[in-house]
């Protein structure tokens, strides 16, 4: 059985279908990336998959349970979600923000168990935030703050991590660093689903790609299997050259609009 399974999820707002019959599965040990143009329905699909939106039809199951029937705390113990918009109400110190990732395990500000403290410290170290622990969030750069939000999601140490454009605010070095962290987490056995816009990063780091256009998943498979110049034209309306560099890897050269 897959860790997560979406079966024909559909969602319509005011007569406009935003997601149509979307089915996919997520396996432990796999970094899956969801790609598609602006407005394709990626964020809406993530929210349906997490049970944050109720589908008109279809089901999403996590470890065999219907996500719409999980209480928020139960869900938060199974899946961590890093959304695109990450509001911070108070400029708390970094350590306290990361520790919020432990709330589903009973942690509250100033009330962390030894395990909560250890998981918080591991997430801080994984995201290269050692030395920032006491810094107030409003003194951080955009890239630093992105890593704090990621650390908060990682602190939950869930079997599934879902992230929406986690590297959008990061410079190239940290983009690679974060995606390497994701690859490492997949190698450790976690399942990851992440939206990315940079197709070069997707080609390089994804184990599997879900291609989305106009609310539908139009292709699924490894980058090698699915990233073709035809697909880039039909899904993104761009002209691109794809070269196979070895048995696994491909290199992508985007030439411009189709
Ligand atoms: N509640 C809503 N009411 C009306 N339209 C909505 C609603 N939520 C989303 N949409 C529309 O649905 C479409 C898909 O939105 P979504 O945010 O899922 O796309 P996306 O693929 O994540 O886009 P992006 O890459 O730009 O973040 C967009 O046209 C958006 O305006």
Automatic annotation (TrEMBL):
The answer to whether UniProt assigns keyword Transport to this entry is: yes
Residues forming the ABC transporter domain are 4-239
Pfam families attached here? ABC_tran
> Does Oxidoreductase appear among the keywords?
no
Show the GO MF annotations.
Answer: ATP binding
Instruction: Extract the PANTHER family matched here.
Output: HEMIN IMPORT ATP-BINDING PROTEIN HMUV
Put simply, this protein is called ABC transporter ATP-binding protein
